[in-house]
Amino acid sequence: MASHCYMSLPGIGKWERALSETGAQWAPYRRYLTTAIKAAEQRSPILAWRLPTETERCAIQQQASRRAASRQSSRKPARRRDRIELKETIGGEWIILEPRPGFEEEPDATFEAFLEARDIHEREPQRSRGQLFWNPQNKIAILASDHERLALKVERLPTILNADTETPQALIYLRTNTWPLECQKNALEQLENLPSPRLAPLVRLASTRPTWETPKPRMLTEGEWVFLRRQVDGGLRDGTQEQRTFVTRALATPDYAVLEGPPGSGKTTAICELILQLAREDKRVLLVASTHVAVDNVLENLMSWQDQAEQKLVMPLRIGDEDNIASAAVRPWALNRLVRTCKGEILDFLDKPGAGSALGANSRTLLGQALRSDKQSALANMMLEASNLVCATTIGILQHPSIKQSRHLEPFDVLILDEASKTTFSEFLVPALFARRWVIVGDRRQLSPFVDETDLAENVRNLLPSAAANAAAYAFQASEQGYRKRGSSLLAFGSAEQRQLQIEEAEARAVPAVDLDTYDLAQPCVPLVGAQIVCASAETLCAWEHRLPGDLHLFNEAVPLLPDWQAHRRACGIENQQAPASWADEVAWRQVRAYELRHNPSEQQRLLDELQALLPKAATTQAVTPHLRENLEQMRRVAMTSILEILQVGAGSLGWDKETALTHGLPGQVQEQRCVSLSFQHRMHPDISAFPREKFYAGGGLLNDASSLDRHWTYQHYGRRAVWLDIAPRPEPRGGQSRGNRNLAEADALMDELTAFADWAKHAPRSGSNAQAPWKVAALTFYKGQEHELRKRLQTLSGQRANTRHFTLHNGRVEVALCTVDRFQGHEADLVLLSFVKSGCVGFLNSPNRLNVALTRARFQLVLIGHRRWMDSERCRSDLLRGLASSPHYAKDFGWDNP
């Protein structure tokens, strides 16, 4: 069947060769997704929960009432009461989600998974023969969710383990949703085995001899432009000509168009223009992005224009939960809401006495019965087929009825993928299969795709036998090659082969090691004195207990109790260290961090060296895993490279010795005909854009300040628009509990700056026509621990103790968004207060992509809050951070002194 499909594909070269080549190119993706699905099935995300306070309960109920009122607002007064959907009246109990104790840096993805789930479990699953078994009696249905307050409404409260003890465990568990990964795998298999002719450009990405069609020029007259029209004086804003070039190329392309633009360069405006021009040509568009805000920004701009326009060119539909749509202007276009409204209006008409003629009575009865029994899918499909703009996130698009039910879907003329730097190739494929042409928009100097380290680790784990992996991990930890040398190890092994493998691995790294099973207990054992690794059977370790050195720190699970030896260690003040992560985990997190630092090669090198050092050195292991290094590199490229990066520079060879677009990017001339870069920014005051332009966009001619940029304001608290408050961390109290990733001194400084600004802003009108619009402030940090600390303070300052991310001050004159940097990509604010937290260690502050996002969110004022003296010293091991701290673009404190 596949051969017949490939015979009909244009532009792929000889079909036999293409069939073989593409299969080899897709194989790494297929293997990775298969393993990732299996790994996800073995995972059970865990969160803590508690009952809401009275204040939180009131806030949740108020939000529920507002939501119900919003849903009723579109209904006509004549709607019969028995059909009004008052979901808020159902029973259930609200609970608040929190990270487990000791897991303060729990990623946002875990909370999002719980908030979007249909049910939770009150007990962890049982594991048997590598499988998880979930007791259905422990399942609790989720009735509603509140994302802002991290709250779930459940049909009953979960029971608490050990409720009568001093350590009760209020935990809930989630069965991982593997549907997104399965959709990616299915899309890949469909492209590999049953590609239709319209998907030929996707197949060409993996072909070594593709033929790329030359786009036919497509020009627009001045009167046809909408968002990109000339200004009143007849001129074009800086960057508008580049935006126009992109639109005309996207209209003309037979396959791909790429728009690259730095922060604030007008990518959203260009997308809006393109959508309107496609609508004029009666084309259907599928708009997809990795975040809700990116999708809603485009849709909000389009609807704002269309409300004032005579022509109503766009009939949009927004797929996704209404509660995830922050924009009030976008919410009315939510698919579920429109279906609900339409269904009610039809039923109202059918219920009217004498509606229609008698000839159609039976048909009306059947229609009414169908609407009452149907779960809205028929109406939803009708609306989706009638819409010329369907919008969703890369996850939300999976809720499209046709995709959800694996039915045929009439392809869209164009897929527009925004924030493409955060979308992997396999994620892109899911919506890409439902389109004829593909427009990719983003900035590869911003954040990369989110990589689940657990999925990556599971894939890595399959590359090496467990005995060899453990031997390499312990030898690495004890060697001088490891950046974080954890110390010597005491290991118990059941077989002589395992012990011999550990000794071989240690000797290959020049790590002193001894196998006690090869020595006589009655004789001296000189190598034991300086050994970094001591291994033996459990019985032998018990026999040698009183001769073991006390400075062995790491243990594997097979080591017996050895009570006398442990007592000796305690008497000497030697603490047991936590056992190291598995070899696969050690490799996985370093792969992720190394990829984050790909634009920071000097600091990436240490991680690359550590990854090299983690590879097995024993000859026995190397003989059975000759391609381990290549497999690891292949896995990294598959899991972490975005579709935007693939089209521009490629994902790397992937073990393939011939160039393809997938491995090396689109050919030069093909890119020139399809790709456009936006060089001007319209967001930041020039003081704010100066450092990012020099550091992250140097040589590319990007992030230039637009001449029309107006960032005048009357707030005189700072002398310059980019300042740095040098805040040294407070010393930890002796014997006190560790604060984790929190910095109380920085939190104090940030709140002081926020309070001062809010006191000014409550009486300060904005410039321009919208003088009473609220001022927007972003309190950003790199760490969840600091976010939690700031949340408590913002709840106190605002009095909104139930809120977690959005707060208002002074009767709404100031809106404050609290966020981690990673979550704030795609957003902007008038004032950004950025807390670095770290002092003494770099953490992941040295990622150029992450730092670029952090420094480019502010419109009027950027305030950096961190230990500048440490970052500017030799004690800081990051060249990037030292360059940031020594930059003259960030004034000291209030900006009157030069740095």
Automatic annotation (TrEMBL):
Keywords: ATP-binding, Helicase, Hydrolase, Nucleotide-binding. Residues 60-82 are annotated as: Disordered. Transmembrane segments: none annotated. GO terms for molecular function: 5'-3' DNA helicase activity; ATP binding; hydrolase activity. Residues 672-868 form the DNA2/NAM7 helicase-like C-terminal domain. Residues 241-339, 369-451 form the DNA2/NAM7 helicase helicase domain. Residues 61-72 have a biased composition (Low complexity). InterPro entries: Coronavir_polyprotein_1ab, DNA2/NAM7-like_C, DNA2/NAM7_AAA_11, P-loop_NTPase, SF1_C_Upf1. SUPFAM superfamilies: P-loop containing nucleoside triphosphate hydrolases. Pfam families: AAA_11, AAA_12. Belongs to the DNA2/NAM7 helicase family. This is AAA domain-containing protein. The lineage of its organism: Bacteria, Pseudomonadati, Pseudomonadota, Gammaproteobacteria, Pseudomonadales.
